[in-house]
Every structure is written in C-alpha cells, then in structure tokens.
Predict the 3D structure of the following.
Amino acid sequence: MERRQKFWGWGWEDEGPTAEQQQRIAQLLAARFNLGALTIAAPPRIEDIALRVPRLAVPPPLATICSTDARDRAAHTYGKSFRDVVRAFRLQYPNPPDVVAFPRSEADVVALLDWCTTARAAAIPYGGGSSVVGGVEPPSSDAYRGAVSLDLRHLNRVVDIDRTSRAARIQAGVYGPALEEQLKPHGYTLRHFPQSFEFSSLGGWIATRSGGHFATLYTHIDDFVESLRVVTPIGIVESRRLPGSGAGPSPDRMFIGSEGTLGIITEAWMRLQNRPTFRNSVSVTFTDFNAAVAATRAISQAGLYPSNCRLLDAGEAMTSGAGNGSESVLIVAFESADHSLDAWMERALECCRDHGGQVPDGAGKTRTDQDASREGAAGAWRQSFLSAPYLRDALVAMGMLTETFETAITWDRFAEFHAGVLAAAQDAVQRVCGAGQVTCRFTHIYPDGPAPYYSIIAPSKKDSQIEQWAEIKEAASDAVIARGGTITHHHAVGRDHRRWYDQQRPEGFARALTAAKAALDPAGILNPGVLIDPVNHYH
C-alpha cells in the first residue's frame, strides 16, 4: 500500500505518537495543568467532508495535470498551523481550491497562469503546504470566480551542477530530502534544514525567506540564492548568475520573501557546500538565564560562527527533555568539511565559563565520521524537530492549545523586550485559558541580536480553540510590535501576520511593493491577500 500524507495535518498518516503514547501524553498534561481526563478526538475522514462543487471548468489541454479530487482539494485548502488543524478537525472546509494543478514543466506553469488570468481565478503557489501563517489557502474574496492551487511537486530535479563554482541549478518543487539525496553523490549539501525540511520545497523556502537549522552566518535561504527564474503573468523573469553585484536593487531580493504574490519560482541556481566531516557539540547549563544570554551574545560577537547556538530557558529545556527545569541550557555545535574544530569550541566554552556556565568534563573534542551528515547539526535537527509537528496534531486532538511565535531584536533591547513579551503572553494565556506555559529559546543569533522563539501550551475549550488562539496570538503579536521586534523572523507573513506586518512595513516601501505587484501581476491573481492587497483585481 502506497504511503500517504495526511490531508488534514502534518506528515505521514502512519507516523506520530501511537494511541498508547497519546494517552500517556494526555495524562501528563492533565496532571501538569490540574485538568480532568482529556478526551482524544478521532482525526477527520475525507468521507465526512462536504466540499462545494468546483466553480471552474478545466480547459481540455490542461485536464491531464489538473485534479478536482476531494482529497487533493482538501489537502490544499490549509497549511499546517494550529488554526488550520483545528479547522480540519471541525470538518470546516468552506473555501477549498476549485482545482489542484500539478504542472510538470515550466511551460505548464505559464499555461496555468494564462488560464487563471482568463478565467478570473486566484492562483495559489503551493510547495509542500507547510505554511503556519495562512500562506497557501484560497482568498475568501468573491472578487475571483474560483481558485487554483499550483502544486510544483513534479518540478523536483537537480538539473545541473557547476563543480567549479560549487553551485547547482535546481527545480523549485523539490522537497528537502530529495534535494539532499540528489546532491549527496556529488559530495555536496545545500545545508539548509528548516523544521519543515521533510515536507517543504526549495521554491517555498525562497518564497518565504525560510530560516534553516543553523544558528549563525547562513541562517536564511537568502544566503544561498545565486539567481532565480520566475514565471509571472506578464512573462518570465530570470536574474543573472553572479557571486555578488552592486548593480542597483537586487532582482533576486524582490522575489525572495514575496510569498507567491509576484510570481512563481520555477528554478534557482543555489550555492552549495561540501558535506561536513568534522563536528563538535557541547551542552552547557546555566542557573541564570540572563547570564546564559550574555554568554550567547559573547559567542555571537566573537566571530566563531557555530552551526548551532541554541539557548533554551529552563521551561523549554525541561519540556524538550534537555534539562530538569531549574537550569537553562545552551547547545553549542560546530561543523566543517575542512578542519578540526577544537580551537573554535575551546573559545566558545571560555565565553560560557566567563558567564557562569557549567561545562561537562571532557567536552569539546572534535569527532570525524565518513558521513557526518547523518549526525552533527543535520542529525540533531532530525532528532529534536522531526516529531514536533506530529505532536502538535496530537495536542489538537486532545483539546489543548499550542502555538509558537518567533521574532528578532537587538541585544541592547533584549532584556526589556523579553520581559514585556513574556509577561504579555503569560497574562493572555492565564486570562484566556486559566493555566498554561510560555517558554523561550533562541533559534538563531547574530552579532547584533538574537531571534527568540516562544512556545505556548495551555488547556482550551474544544468548541472555542480558534477563538482562544486568536486572542492569545493578538496579545503576543501586539507586544512584539509595540516593543520594536519583527512580527516574524522566519515563519513568513501570510494572512495571519498581515495586520502586524502592515504596521511594521514602512509606508513608502508598501507603495513600492504594491506597484511591483501591479506591474508583474496586473490582474491580481497571484496569492491575493498575502503580504499585500492587489490593486487591479477583478470585480
């Protein structure tokens, strides 16, 4: 039997916590928050979902690459946020795409956009559907006669490798594991591992300015893009392959982070790296979170560029199994394909000791393996993050509320920022849910500031999970913006962050972006409502 992905939640149908594990998790949560027994709801079945009749008729030349199958349409209705999974559990599919298209070539993408323009249909670019910000669902506006989800999964090849320049031309629909598998025989890696790695695509990473697992230096996909090829409603835009350029504003930068509103990325030349063969990793504990923050800043400003420098507060460390709840934990790791790492780690551990960090005896020796990619930072990512989205689905089934929000702020403002945001989030959780936990970790660090990532888990009422989620998210997002942070460091804007992105974005830039949208997408068909509102859409 062919393995299938869930149409309603994260990942494979046959993965995630077992029924027995879910029961145990439910018991632990009930004890932690002093709740009664938690009931675990059964996941939705496609047979129980009534989708509206498609409003669009597929032209015969496109029929072989288009689907109106109920499972395909339901699977492309939502992304993978808490709100998305709750709506799926409630069997709420009022606005599915009318058609799901699976182009097999760039010419197919051109033909599909031409059809959407003629048919007055919204065109929603779709990579792996891992958006947690409402970035892939059809618009609710009645300004469109229908919606087409363009799933690029068949554009999944590494087309060409330039060994001299250490770069590759790659189709945008390739998922993370398939990309790495194609690069591996050549001794290369893209070295970009977002949490969604297994079920997200290169084009999606570029379109959303994805943040990878690595904590310093090459934190975002931006750093790896050498050039882009993009299909827009007015034609193809392709940038020149260059290691760097000062020729005006970067055309690549206009499309990186555009979230499918300006065009559909079909190919990219990407900078590669040699696969690592040296690795070194140490976990350091701190009794004082502020001291741990100071140590992290010292490392970030020492020019060491660790592959991982993930600081977990005491609550986060306990929840993830990395601590006992009384200490913060700083995980420091280095990787290289070229040299031993002892000197770099020794200096990083000095920074930790200078701020009261407890370093395990004998820690900090470089190890080598024939295939370090199975361990090191990539392996740590698999162990630490692969199961988290599956657990989120299970928590929704138990009626728990779980949410994350991430941001970035400069070091000089962090202490006041963190105290204010944490207090606002905790107050909202207590007010809305009566109990709950808010924890923090750093996912990325820069010489001028960290990227704090906050996690929330709380009991909720099953009939008002979305309403409770919205109230908490509003309070946390208001606090982030009011205190000078960014509404998102790597999750993207989508629809869920629009209100706060509109506040953060300079007005002059908003006008320029709207003008670029009108120039490249005159009919306003591409992902309407995400990032900006189209000006010249159909009425």
Observations:
- Confidence is low (pLDDT under 50) at residues 370-382.
- The chain has 16 helices and 18 strands.
- The CA atoms of residues 135 and 494 lie 4 Å apart.
- The radius of gyration is 23 Å.
